[in-house]
Amino acid sequence: MEPTAALSASAQIAVAIAGFAGVVAAFRNDSVHDWGQVEKFWLRLLLINSILPLALSMVGLFLLSFSEFMPSIWRWCSGISALFLVPYATMIARTLAGFTPGQLEVAGGTRFTSYVLVILLATVCLLQVWNLATLAAFWPFFGAIVAQLLGAMYQFVRLVLSPRQSPFPDPASRRSRANHCND
Question: For residue 135, is it within any domain?
Fold first, then answer.
Protein backbone atom coordinates (compact mmCIF):
# COMPACT_ATOMS: atom_id res chain seq x y z
CA MET A 1 0.00 0.00 0.00
CA GLU A 2 1.29 3.41 -0.92
CA PRO A 3 1.86 5.87 1.95
CA THR A 4 -0.67 8.32 0.54
CA ALA A 5 -3.42 5.70 0.48
CA ALA A 6 -2.50 4.39 3.94
CA LEU A 7 -2.47 7.88 5.47
CA SER A 8 -5.75 8.80 3.78
CA ALA A 9 -7.41 5.66 5.10
CA SER A 10 -6.07 6.21 8.61
CA ALA A 11 -7.34 9.80 8.59
CA GLN A 12 -10.82 8.60 7.63
CA ILE A 13 -10.78 5.92 10.32
CA ALA A 14 -9.63 8.47 12.91
CA VAL A 15 -12.52 10.79 12.07
CA ALA A 16 -14.99 7.90 12.37
CA ILE A 17 -13.61 6.84 15.75
CA ALA A 18 -13.72 10.42 17.03
CA GLY A 19 -17.40 10.43 16.07
CA PHE A 20 -17.92 7.32 18.15
CA ALA A 21 -17.17 9.40 21.25
CA GLY A 22 -20.62 10.92 20.80
CA VAL A 23 -22.08 7.44 20.54
CA VAL A 24 -20.38 6.50 23.81
CA ALA A 25 -21.82 9.55 25.55
CA ALA A 26 -25.29 8.78 24.18
CA PHE A 27 -25.25 5.16 25.37
CA ARG A 28 -24.22 5.96 28.91
CA ASN A 29 -26.97 6.41 31.50
CA ASP A 30 -25.94 9.88 32.62
CA SER A 31 -24.27 13.07 31.50
CA VAL A 32 -20.51 13.12 30.89
CA HIS A 33 -20.28 15.65 33.73
CA ASP A 34 -21.58 12.98 36.11
CA TRP A 35 -19.09 10.30 35.04
CA GLY A 36 -16.39 9.17 37.42
CA GLN A 37 -12.75 10.16 37.04
CA VAL A 38 -11.81 6.87 35.38
CA GLU A 39 -14.58 7.05 32.78
CA LYS A 40 -13.68 10.66 31.93
CA PHE A 41 -10.05 9.57 31.60
CA TRP A 42 -11.06 6.76 29.22
CA LEU A 43 -13.13 9.18 27.14
CA ARG A 44 -10.14 11.55 26.97
CA LEU A 45 -7.98 8.64 25.77
CA LEU A 46 -10.58 7.76 23.14
CA LEU A 47 -10.58 11.32 21.82
CA ILE A 48 -6.81 11.78 21.89
CA ASN A 49 -6.22 8.34 20.33
CA SER A 50 -8.38 9.43 17.41
CA ILE A 51 -7.34 13.08 17.06
CA LEU A 52 -3.57 12.40 17.16
CA PRO A 53 -3.69 9.83 14.31
CA LEU A 54 -5.81 12.23 12.30
CA ALA A 55 -3.32 15.05 12.84
CA LEU A 56 -0.31 12.82 12.16
CA SER A 57 -1.91 11.45 8.98
CA MET A 58 -2.57 14.97 7.77
CA VAL A 59 1.01 16.02 8.56
CA GLY A 60 2.30 13.02 6.60
CA LEU A 61 0.06 13.83 3.65
CA PHE A 62 1.14 17.47 3.74
CA LEU A 63 4.83 16.61 3.81
CA LEU A 64 4.35 14.15 0.95
CA SER A 65 3.36 17.12 -1.21
CA PHE A 66 6.97 18.40 -1.02
CA SER A 67 9.03 16.20 -3.29
CA GLU A 68 12.32 17.81 -2.20
CA PHE A 69 11.85 16.40 1.34
CA MET A 70 11.20 12.84 0.13
CA PRO A 71 14.40 11.24 1.48
CA SER A 72 13.82 12.54 5.00
CA ILE A 73 10.03 12.83 5.17
CA TRP A 74 9.56 9.84 7.49
CA ARG A 75 12.22 11.18 9.85
CA TRP A 76 10.26 14.42 10.08
CA CYS A 77 7.00 12.57 10.60
CA SER A 78 8.44 10.35 13.33
CA GLY A 79 10.00 13.37 15.03
CA ILE A 80 6.67 15.18 15.06
CA SER A 81 4.98 12.00 16.26
CA ALA A 82 7.46 11.63 19.13
CA LEU A 83 6.92 15.28 20.12
CA PHE A 84 3.26 14.49 20.77
CA LEU A 85 3.45 10.88 21.93
CA VAL A 86 6.07 11.27 24.67
CA PRO A 87 4.06 13.90 26.63
CA TYR A 88 0.90 11.87 25.97
CA ALA A 89 2.45 8.71 27.42
CA THR A 90 3.69 10.73 30.40
CA MET A 91 0.20 12.16 31.00
CA ILE A 92 -1.31 8.68 30.91
CA ALA A 93 1.24 7.27 33.36
CA ARG A 94 0.78 10.19 35.77
CA THR A 95 -3.00 9.92 35.63
CA LEU A 96 -2.91 6.17 36.26
CA ALA A 97 -0.56 6.67 39.20
CA GLY A 98 -3.00 9.22 40.65
CA PHE A 99 -5.93 6.83 40.83
CA THR A 100 -6.58 5.39 44.27
CA PRO A 101 -6.20 1.62 44.75
CA GLY A 102 -9.27 -0.13 43.39
CA GLN A 103 -10.55 2.85 41.44
CA LEU A 104 -9.78 1.36 38.01
CA GLU A 105 -11.17 -2.03 39.02
CA VAL A 106 -14.47 -0.58 40.24
CA ALA A 107 -14.89 1.21 36.91
CA GLY A 108 -14.30 -2.04 35.03
CA GLY A 109 -10.58 -1.74 34.24
CA THR A 110 -7.39 -3.18 35.64
CA ARG A 111 -4.04 -1.68 36.52
CA PHE A 112 -2.29 -4.50 34.68
CA THR A 113 -4.05 -3.79 31.36
CA SER A 114 -3.58 -0.05 31.75
CA TYR A 115 0.14 -0.32 32.41
CA VAL A 116 0.64 -2.83 29.58
CA LEU A 117 -0.94 -0.29 27.23
CA VAL A 118 1.35 2.45 28.58
CA ILE A 119 4.37 0.19 27.98
CA LEU A 120 3.18 -0.42 24.42
CA LEU A 121 2.82 3.33 23.90
CA ALA A 122 6.32 3.90 25.30
CA THR A 123 7.62 1.28 22.85
CA VAL A 124 5.91 3.13 19.99
CA CYS A 125 7.60 6.33 21.20
CA LEU A 126 11.01 4.62 21.16
CA LEU A 127 10.28 3.31 17.67
CA GLN A 128 9.64 6.89 16.53
CA VAL A 129 12.95 8.05 17.97
CA TRP A 130 14.73 5.12 16.27
CA ASN A 131 13.07 5.99 12.96
CA LEU A 132 14.08 9.63 13.38
CA ALA A 133 17.69 8.77 14.22
CA THR A 134 18.50 5.93 11.84
CA LEU A 135 15.79 4.13 9.91
CA ALA A 136 13.85 6.84 8.01
CA ALA A 137 11.12 4.42 6.92
CA PHE A 138 7.36 4.79 6.55
CA TRP A 139 6.30 1.72 8.54
CA PRO A 140 7.34 2.94 12.04
CA PHE A 141 5.45 6.19 11.56
CA PHE A 142 2.40 4.41 10.22
CA GLY A 143 2.74 1.83 13.01
CA ALA A 144 2.35 4.65 15.55
CA ILE A 145 -0.84 5.76 13.83
CA VAL A 146 -2.22 2.21 13.75
CA ALA A 147 -1.33 1.67 17.43
CA GLN A 148 -3.24 4.81 18.42
CA LEU A 149 -6.25 3.82 16.35
CA LEU A 150 -6.25 0.38 17.98
CA GLY A 151 -6.04 2.15 21.35
CA ALA A 152 -9.04 4.29 20.43
CA MET A 153 -11.02 1.21 19.45
CA TYR A 154 -10.10 -0.42 22.75
CA GLN A 155 -11.24 2.66 24.69
CA PHE A 156 -14.50 2.73 22.74
CA VAL A 157 -15.26 -0.92 23.50
CA ARG A 158 -14.25 -0.48 27.14
CA LEU A 159 -16.55 2.51 27.61
CA VAL A 160 -19.49 0.86 25.86
CA LEU A 161 -19.18 -2.51 27.59
CA SER A 162 -18.43 -1.12 31.05
CA PRO A 163 -21.80 0.26 32.16
CA ARG A 164 -20.76 0.62 35.79
CA GLN A 165 -20.60 4.10 37.21
CA SER A 166 -17.47 4.62 39.24
CA PRO A 167 -18.19 5.39 42.90
CA PHE A 168 -15.30 7.85 42.61
CA PRO A 169 -16.99 10.81 40.92
CA ASP A 170 -14.88 13.62 39.60
CA PRO A 171 -14.65 16.23 42.41
CA ALA A 172 -14.42 19.05 39.87
CA SER A 173 -17.79 18.12 38.36
CA ARG A 174 -19.43 18.13 41.80
CA ARG A 175 -18.06 21.61 42.52
CA SER A 176 -19.16 22.82 39.10
CA ARG A 177 -22.71 21.49 39.60
CA ALA A 178 -22.86 22.98 43.11
CA ASN A 179 -21.73 26.39 41.84
CA HIS A 180 -24.17 26.18 38.94
CA CYS A 181 -27.07 25.38 41.30
CA ASN A 182 -26.16 28.35 43.53
CA ASP A 183 -26.39 30.80 40.61
Answer: yes
Supply φ then ψ for residue 36, to 5 degrees.
-75, 170
64 lies in which domain range?
3-162
Residue 174 belongs to some domain of the structure? no
37-64 vs 3-27: helix crossing angle, rounded to 10:
160
Q: What is the pLDDT of residues 36-88, one digit of tens each?
A: 999 999 999 999 999 999 999 999 999 999 877 777 999 999 999 999 999 99
| Predicted TM-score (pTM) of this structure | 0.87
Number of domains within the chain: 1
Confidence of residue 166 (pLDDT cuts 50, 70, 90): low
Judge whether 173 lies within some domain. Answer: no
* Residue 100, SS3 per DSSP: coil
